[in-house]
Amino acid sequence: MIRAAVVGVGSMGRHHARVYGELDGVELVAVADPDERHRAAIAKRTGARAYESYQRLFEQEKLDVVSVAVPTSLHHEVVVCAFEHGVHVLVEKPIAASVEDATDLIRRRERNGLTLAVGHIERHNPAVIELSRRLKAGELGRVFQVHSRRMSPFPPYVRDVGVTLDLATHEIDVIRALVGSPVLRMFAETARNVHETQEDSLISTLRFRNGVVGSLIANWVTPSKTRECRVLGERGMAVVDYLSQDLYFHENSDAPSRWDAMALFKGVEEGNVVKLRVAKAEPLRAELSDFVQAARAGTPPRVTGTDGLFAVAIAQMLLESANTHQNLDVRAEVIRRGWPEVLRTGLDG
Hints:
Elements: E1 2-7, H1 13-22, E2 26-32, H2 36-46, E3 49-51, H3 54-60, E4 65-68, H4 75-84, E5 88-92, H5 99-112, E6 116-119, H6 126-136, E7 143-151, H7 163-179, E8 183-191, E9 201-208, E10 213-219, E11 226-233, E12 236-241, E13 246-252, E14 270-276, H8 283-297, H9 305-324, E15 328-329, H10 330-337, H11 341-348
Parallel strand pairs: 1-2, 1-4, 2-3, 4-5, 5-6, 7-10
Antiparallel strand pairs: 7-11, 8-9, 8-15, 9-10, 11-12, 12-13, 13-14
Helix pairs in contact: 4-5, 5-9, 7-9, 9-11, 10-11
């Protein structure tokens, strides 16, 4: 039986507690949260012991795994404490508030031989998994563009970081996984409209080494929630709705029907629109199942600490581009900042 805990049982952490209680072979033994109402409600519902501080939780409980769902500014210190007590960690995205903190967590994980998973939950979304499978099978032919939109009303509970680190990192991670190529350069514009201290709107473009151009829009100023990614290629366009887990294919009827005829690609003509079958499931359940299995077997989780590091690095560079109003060359920026070699090779090849 895997003994699990959750640190931070507010808006997201309470769902982690629920899912741990539903997983076979897992026992939710404890939760920690400084808000008495939050921890008491989860303890009453699940029977888990409740602690005011995460330090006390790790001192008193013998744990195998823990989910860390605290504000981003606290990620580093909580994960470090968990590692010091020999506990495998899934930390909500972003992995940390900076590249330096994220790098430190990865190095600590390596030294301790522990699992570090990052909660980029959309990589466990069945529609995203199916889209990724079809792209790898070449069903869209050569990919031209990826357009991602993640917009919602303002969340009053997010105070320590802006929309780029908190929201756009979801899409950064998904785009990287779908494109499968290093980023060459990027440009971004941000704005602060309603947030007291942080940017709440982002519009950006990313150029990948394989020629794909990506666009990413994220904001907290849209009155309705939108979670969508569009991938445009030779054979048509795939559209995934993260919320409904629907996946559509808009056919380019002018595309050659034979793979070896793609060199004869001439243009685009509107064709059929097909809703592709996706076996729907709860992404969080899939994410925690993957994490627990990785901890049990000592194998990498679907989203590793290094994946989380890449997302934070790109987010920081987008913010730098917005602040300086410049198009950033990734290699030059990584060298300028003195970031580790894994970023130099993983981001720009």
